[in-house]
TrEMBL record:
It holds the Pfam family adh_short. The keyword Oxidoreductase applies. Keywords: Oxidoreductase. PANTHER family: DEHYDROGENASES, SHORT CHAIN, SCP2 DOMAIN-CONTAINING PROTEIN. The keyword Oxidoreductase applies. GO terms for molecular function: oxidoreductase activity. InterPro entries: KR_dom, NAD(P)-bd_dom_sf, Peroxisomal_Beta-Oxidation, Sc_DH/Rdtase_CS, SDR_fam. This is Ketoreductase domain-containing protein. It comes from Saccharopolyspora shandongensis. Belongs to the short-chain dehydrogenases/reductases (SDR) family.
């Protein structure tokens, strides 16, 4: 991948997956704007890229507001003269079951993940259209947004909505040559080490031990670096014809999520009463009802 001359913003890139994305883009020649709310982490990440021979600058600001979005795009243009790629990665967790989740828990996650994605993409698109020549938008989703996840009402809602926006933006921006895609990564980070059956494997990985094949393939989880290559690919000319898609990446697995499709259909003259539905449900629909939540190998979850 040759991203020489390209300029990218990666939100939430002081550590974890965001840092892996930023380092991957820089390794392939892009200049990178590091963003984080942690000033020390943001500047350390930018300094690390520069020390490795890349180009980077840091913008310390909380993602969510239009003001931060403008600050990020202005930072890219002031430091490097243009903007070509936006990766919306910034996020937080406030996990609680529904009946214990407060308004503040809900709003905080929606503000960073969902509003932050919207404001940053809107500002980047304004710049892309002013420059001409297209651009690349890569929004970070999650399997939780595709399948749901216990205790993550706020996070699952935000991530599902992000993929919905990606599909809409792909339609709206196609004529301008701007591609928009979602990446749903699974990696060993602070966000995944809270999952009980994954925690021991993440601890083993921290000790330098390799993850077993069942984790890297069946669960599709690995290091943040394992999930970074897809970002450089989607930022490159090789992906110019790919837009409106949601991809899953992690460990040794790369996959493409389907768009929601009708799985069963029936017709009833004059419309459907409740009794009509009850009478037809078993034959017409019961066999097509789908599961919810991520499905992991039984031998792992049982441990």
């Amino acid at each position: 991948m040759d991203l020489s001359g390209k300029v990218a913003i990666v939100t939430g890139s002081g550590r974890g997956l965001g840092l892996a994305y930023a380092e991957e883009l820089a390794r392939n020649g892009a200049a990178v704007v590091i963003n984080d709310v942690d000033e020390a982490a943001a500047h350390a990440a930018a300094a690390g890229i520069v020390a490795a021979g890349g180009r980077a600058t840091a913008v310390v600001a909380p993602v969510g507001t239009a003001e931060t979005a403008r600050k990020l795009v202005a930072g890219a243009v002031e430091a490097f003269g243009r903007l070509d790629v936006l990766v919306t990665n910034a996020g937080i967790l406030r996990d609680k079951v529904l009946w214990k989740m407060t308004d503040e828990d809900f709003d905080a996650v929606i503000d960073v993940h969902l509003r932050g994605t919207f404001t940053c993409v809107r500002e980047a698109v304004l710049r892309f259209r002013e420059q001409g020549g297209g651009g690349r938008i890569i929004c970070i989703g999650s399997p939780a947004g595709q399948r749901g996840n216990f205790g993550q009402t706020n996070y699952s809602a935000a991530k599902a909505a992000i993929v919905g926006m990606v599909r809409t933006w792909a339609l709206e921006l196609q004529r301008a040559g701007i591609t928009v895609n979602a990446v749903c990564p699974v990696a060993a980070t602070a966000m995944t080490e809270t999952i009980p059956f994954l925690a021991p494997h993440i601890e083993s990985m921290k000790r330098g031990e390799p993850l077993p094949a069942v984790i890297r393939r069946e669960v599709g989880m690995g290091t943040p670096e394992d999930a970074a290559g897809i970002v450089s690919f989607l930022a490159s000319e090789a992906a110019a014809g790919i837009t409106g898609q949601a991809l899953s990446v992690g460990g040794d697995r790369l996959a493409l999520w389907s768009h929601p499709q009708l799985t069963a259909t029936a017709f009833h003259d004059g419309g459907w009463s409740a009794d009509d539905i009850a009478g037809s449900w078993g034959e017409a629909f019961a066999g097509s009802v789908e599961s919810v939540g991520e499905e992991f190998p039984a031998e792992l979850v049982a441990k």
